[in-house]
Amino acid sequence: IYILAIESSCDDTSAAVLCNTKVLSNVVATQEIHKQYGGVVPELASRAHQQNIVPVVHQALAKANIDKKQLSAIAFTRGPGLMGSLLVGTSFAKSLALALNIPLIEVNHMEAHILAHFIDDEEMTAPPFPFLGMTISGGHTQIVKVNHYFDMEVLGETLDDAVGEAFDKSAKLMGLPYPGGPLVDKHARKGNPSAFSFPKPKVDGLNFSFSGLKTSILYFLQKHTKNNPNFVQENIDDICASVQHTILEILMEKLDKAAKETGIKHVAIGGGVAANSGIRQRLQDARETKGWTTYIPKFQYCTDNAGMIGIVGYLKFMENQFTDQGIAAKARYAIGS
Ligand code: ATP
Ligand code: FE
Asked: Fewer C-beta within 10 Å: the chain N or C terminus?
């Protein structure tokens, strides 16, 4: 089975070709235009998707050495995401499927972040059911009980900012360019995680909150730069390490609670923040300290990519879960709905 997958939910235009569960190509065009605005500008994102989509799909087919006549189906991200961005991928997928007269498969982006673990790759192992999936990305923070491929239950999620947003907004306060998450990670590796301490929010159950952290970082920076205008530059590594430490503590506490409550010890992470070296280390350590079996996707399957859309496409293909041409993009699209 050859699947062409298309992802355009936010600011990355991506296309992938899969042969069954193997990814033959996974091309990602990251939109640089948003950097100068310090965040994604929806209107510019959808325009850039329109420019990128044809070349990106061509490249994915060429790299996989597959002719479009060989394709078995086309999978695309239906949502959640930015409406204008989703429309580009959705319309393109629909037209191509129609032209080639092959089935169309809609994919939930958040389910794809979790199911990326089922991509066949020698550096990855697929978790057995049931497992806990923690999706940590730019727009979401969720702990999900995964009973089966298409049987997922959200146990907890953020009540305000997503964890990726917490990274990016903290970075912005320190004057780091967008997206700041990877830069915080880079500085944190050189800093002392206990140099500064930030309060952790009190949230019941398995839900998260990150908006308070941003505010306390703002006050912290204001206080210190009043006495020393170079405070941030001089302490960037330690500040990043301390901020990251606080965020990781929040994530691990909830994950631990979820594991205890469900009795599940197979824990998988996904989403862009799963690229963070600190969370990867914490998960590694939990194998020894908590007796968990942990699953961490390869870096390129953490951030937005069409490979993860393709694996869901394949799994749905095998279950005959196709969609018709009447399908519309869905900006808000809950897991399991
Ligand atoms: P969603 O999947 O919820 O729609 P998204 O697609 O914008 O959101 P992803 O591409 O999955 O999100 O992840 C992007 C986020 O991951 C950004 O907030 C970015 O800063 C963060 N991120 C990427 N690498 C790292 C890292 N090494 N450390 C911390 N954060 C990181
Ligand atoms: Fe994403």
From this structure: C
Ligand 1, residues at Cβ distance < 6 Å:
9-10, 81, 109, 113, 137-140, 164, 167-168, 179, 181-182, 185, 271-273, 275-276, 303-304
Burial category of 233 from C-beta neighbours within 10 Å (exposed 0-12, middle 13-18, buried 19 and up): exposed
Entry pTM: 0.94
d(CA 138, CA 276): 12
For residue 279, which atom of ligand 1 is closest to its CA?
28
Picking from 169, 127, 132, 89, the residue whose alpha carbon sits closest to that of residue 267 is 132
For residue 193, what are its two tokens? 């995680």
Asked if residue 84 belongs to a known ligand binding site, the reply is no
Specify the pLDDT at position 128. 98
ipTM surpasses cut 0.95: yes
Residue 304 annotated in ligand binding: yes
Which bound ligand lies closest to the C-alpha atom of 140? 1
Query: Per-residue pLDDT averaged across 186-192, rounded?
Result: 98
The number of beta carbons lying within 10 Å of the beta carbon of residue 241 is 24
Burial class (CB in 10 A: 0-12, 13-18, 19+), 230: exposed
Using the mean position of ligand 2's atoms as its centre, give its distance from the Cα of residue 220 in Å.
30
Predicted local distance difference test score (pLDDT) of residue 45: 86
Amino acid in position 76: F
Alpha carbon of 274 to ligand 1 centroid (Å): 8
